[in-house]
Structures are given as structure tokens and as C-alpha cells.
Amino acid sequence: MIRLCVASVMLAGPIGATAATIATGDLAPIQSGLDYHSFANIDQFRVTRLELDLRVDSTNKVVYGAVGLAIKRLDPSATELVLDTRDLDITDVTEKAQDVLGATAKTETTWVSRPFHLERKDPILGQALVIDLPPSKRATEFIRVEYQTSPNASGLQWLTAKQAGGHKPFMYTESEAIGARSWIPLQDTPGVRVTYKATIHTDNDVRAVMSAQNDPKAKRNGEYTFVMPEAVPSYLIALAVGDLEFKETGPRTGVYAQKSMLKQAAAEFADTESMIQAAEKLFGPYRWDRYDILVMPASFPEGGMENPRLSFITPTVIAGDKSLVSVIAHELAHSWSGNLVSNATWRDLWLNEGFTDYLESRIMKAVYGERREMMELALGLQSLRKNLAELKPEDQVLAIDLRNRNPDEVFTEVPYEKGRLFLIYLDAKFGHDRFDEFLRSYFEHFSFKSITTEEFLKYLQDNLLDRFPGTVSRDAVKAWVYGPGIPPDAVLPTTDAFAIVDDARGAWLDGKTPAKNIDTHEWVAQQWLQFLNHMPATLTTSQMVELDQAFGFTHSANAEIEHSWLLLVIRNHYQPGNVRLETYLETVGRGKLILPLYKEMMKTPAGAVQAKRVFALARPVYHPTVQAAVDAIVTPAGDSENSDE
Ligand SMILES: [Zn+2]
């Protein structure tokens, strides 16, 4: 989705029996800062540094090798180190007493085997890897784990050359929320930050890139080394391997893509440096050296993923006219909100996403003007309202209770759009100057830290509410963070850019203006979306033909506009749009764009047959999370799924 950066796909339905547990409220009060989605005993041991030495085997769809972990011992009497894993085959665990890491250096005799075992598998969390470590007064422990991933690893996607739309196979990781444990055994919680080094072995004719220092000039020789000097949470560790080429777009920006996309992508993302400068002016220096973009295959399930120094971006934002680049503003904004100051647990995701949506709109305003910003805000509000109508009240709060649930269920519009509205509200109440100063000090104060909702609220109280008393009450803040829905005092976006469009649609529907006579030559993508998204439930075939002939929707180059049109194609059984519908579903894998189409198709018996047939063809191209989500739509069992993201 336009602003979505992470797993934009809600998993289908409640997981196991857990929804009932939540609903009955049987659980103890939630403990702020406790990560309910990790087994790691981080109060006894803290991993501070990783060293990866991995081979990416695209023939067998596995990654294997070793990880070295430097671990700060917080409890001298602790006897077990617990790491998170999921579907990993652990072959050896060794310990080293000296202060030298070197995952590759196992030949040295100082490594000593340590007993270990895997606990029983939890369907959501995976398996705890328990390593025996005798009590010690040493400040730091060095552990090396040899392992291999499963071909079904939840954090990896393997694409054939054909599926990747190129000449070589493509592999990439998606570690957010808890995918990292499926390809690295580690403390998989955003509360722990690590620096890392990596040596990645691949086939000779592909290139590996990571969320780290990348060398665009590195020779393609099958061995790539990376250093990530800034400490990041595990969900930001990322790797991609494919037939990648590089094109510079500025002194510290560039694009990695398969050759067929490289030129278009570099042109589309040419404003990235301007965006960085706008963001730096507002929120303080960019702290990550370079900012590059990796253009993913079309099956990438999300809009983008804010992997530090190297955002992973869907090609569906390449429209030829920069109309969808708010996704870039969003992923870039994460360099402050999310990557610099991170959510401590998945309950606190709104600190990442609400802040980032807000920063995104500030960047869009600075680079493209207020009119564009307001249209995007208005479309965002429409999505939020639609989503709120489908969500239970307890899932409409910013600080959501995710216990016994898959943390991916947090990725609704709420942390994004409601979070953004909360910051817009504070901005309006305190004024740009005071609020911007607050934000700059917030990013500085918590830089390279992971924080909870409650830590933020304390900081907000001390540095804004109490400094300018009588402006915003504590209760008002609580209503935003812990209450459902949109508080009545919200400051909502307004734009006159949509009134023109609504009027034109109305005049056409009333038969007053033929479609070809509507003056659309100044319309931008956001206005076209507004035009299509508010069409009545049914149109006649001749109306569909008229629209298509006047505006060529069936062949739109803009994936978002095409999406809105295809919904009408399905709803109105418009045959000339059918081929495009099926091609779209067989190539695009972005959950936000395809799940609503499958849902719409399932509303009629003929559509259901078509949906199942197309899905059977398209399935191998989709990411596992999207496969699961489409499965739940086309073969519903029990509770149906409630998000169209
Ligand atoms: Zn995001």
C-alpha cells in the first residue's frame, strides 16, 4: 500500500485458539517492554554483534553456514542462553573464550563445543534454541552456531529467473516482524540492537546486497562482504541476491535493480536526494551514510521495506510520472522513525509507522507541495475509515495487545494512519515550530535505541505537554493511544482537489457530461484514484466501455489506478478488462493491490471459479504470506479475514 512498508498482508483470521483468549480478557495486564514474541532471555544475555558467513544455494533453496554472536553477559549466574529460531537445522554450537569473533575461523582450536537443544515448536514463534553456558564472570561470551535454513523459511523468498522477471534467480529476506529467526539464530526482538558483518557466498553470476555498507563497484565473483557499523534491531537485517545492476542517482543515492528496470527506476527515484535534504532540514542529520533503493521483483508482497541504507521497494510504484513515490518518502523517513528510534516490541509499532507516515507527508509537502500532501492524506484517511469499520474496538488502539497472536496482525491501517493523525493533532495544537523542535530532540535523545509506547509518552509529557501547559491534556493523549477509533478532536485533512473530481464524476453519472468531455488534463494520480474509488456499486456495460474508451484504464501504466479500475471490471463483469485482470494477478504480488481483487471476485460463483483458476497459476510467484492470505480468501474456512491490506 502507498504508505505501507512492512508486511502489508494481514494473516488470515485469528491464529489458533488465541483470539478467544484475547476476547475473554483472561490475560494478566500487559507488561510494557516485554516482548511476547521472542523466547530470548535478554535480561541475562544481550547479543551486541553478529558475524555471518553464509552460502546462498538457490538450487536447493537453502542458506547455510554459521553465525558468530558476541554476547554481553548481564547475569554471571545464568546457565542457559536462549535464542530464537524457526525451521532451522542447527548442526553445531561452539564457544570461544577469547575476544576474537570470526565466524569463519572455526579451524582455530580455541572453539569448544557446547551442549544445545531445540524446544518444542510453537506455531507462531518457532523454536527456542537453548545453549548450555556455565556461570561465568566474563563480560562477553562468544558463540558460534552452524546451521541451515529450511526451503520453507518464512523470512526468505526464492524466485526462479522467470518468476523474478529477469535472467537469474532472485532471493530475498523479509525479517519484519519475526522472520529473521528463520534465517539466523539470534535474539529476534526489536528491543535488542546489533552491529553486524557478513560474508555472503553466491553463484558467480549474481550479486548480493545487504542492509549495510554496499559497494556498488564490487566485482561479481560470488563472494561479497558487508559491514553494518550502526546497531540495528534484528528485523532490519536484510539480504537480497539476484541479477542486480547499479545506477547512481545522486552523491549518496542510487538504485539497484535487474537490468530491465534499472533506467526507469533511476528516473522515477531521481528526487531521492531532494527528499533526504528536506528530511534533514526538518528532523536532523541522516545518520546512515548512503541511501540506496533496491527494486524488487513484482511479486514483492509489500510497498517497501525500510532496510537501513537499502530500502527494498516494489516496482509497482514505478508509474513513469513520480506519482507514487510517497513510498520512497516513507521508507526514507524510517531512517529517523523506526531505524534510528525503533519500537521496542510489536505492540509499539505505531512509534515506527505513525511517526513515519507523518514524516512522509512532511517530506512530500516539502518536495512536491501541500496540494499533493493533502490529497495523499485524504486518501489515507479514507483507507483508515474503511479499515476501522472492519476492526474490533480492541484492535483500533495504537498500543495494541498482540499476545498469543501473530505479530503480523499489527499491520493494519491503525498504527500508520491513526498514528499519523495523532502526530498531526499534536503538530496543530503546539504549532510547527514547537513540534518540529520536539521531534528533533526526540530523535536525538533516543537515537539508536528501541523504546516503548510508555517511554515515548513520558518523554512527550516532560518535553511538550508540561512545557506548554494547557495545550493538550494527558487524557486527550490517552484517548489517542489507548482508545478505539478516531478521537473527535482530530485534525482531519481537507483538499479541494477532490471536489473537482467528485463533481466531474457526478455530472457524468447524471448523464450531463460525456466522459470524453471531462477536463482531466491536469488531474494527477491521486485524483484519478478518487474518481474511480467512489464510483457507485454498479455501472452499466456501456458506462464501463465509455470510461475505458475515454481514459484507457484497462491499459493504465499506474499500478494503483489499474487496481481501482480492475475492482470495477470485476464488479461489473466487464469482459474487455478480463485479460488485463488475469495478467495483473499473475505478475503483481503486492498484497495491498491483489487481495481486494480476489475478495471482489469471490462475491459471485463465476468470479470464484476464475479466482481459483488464476490463483493456481499465480501462486508460485506470491510471497508465502500473500499465498496464505489468498488461500484464506479463495478457500475460506471458519472465520474470514478482515483486512484488505
Ligand atoms: Zn513503514
Provide the fold topology.
Layout: H1 18-24, E1 45-57, E2 62-73, E3 80-85, E4 89-96, E5 112-113, E6 116-118, E7 127-132, E8 140-148, E9 156-159, H2 161-164, E10 170-173, E11 193-201, E12 207-210, E13 223-233, E14 239-242, E15 244-250, E16 253-258, H3 259-268, H4 272-283, E17 291-295, E18 304-305, E19 310-313, H5 326-333, E20 341-343, H6 349-368, H7 370-388, H8 413-430, H9 432-445, E21 449-451, H10 453-465, H11 474-482, H12 497-509, H13 525-533, H14 541-551, H15 559-571, H16 578-587, H17 591-601, H18 605-618, H19 624-634
Zinc ion (ZN) binds next to helix 6.
What do these coordinates show?
- The protein is of the alpha+beta class.
- The chain folds into three domains: 38-157 and 171-240, tricorn interacting facor f3 domain (Immunoglobulin-like); 341-482, Neutral Protease, domain 2; 499-634, Serine Threonine Protein Phosphatase 5, Tetratricopeptide repeat (Alpha Horseshoe), CATH 1.25.40.
- It is built from 19 helices and 21 strands.
- Helix 4 crosses helix 5, helix 4 crosses helix 6 and helix 17 (591-601) runs parallel beside helix 19 (624-634).
- Zinc ion binds next to helix 6.
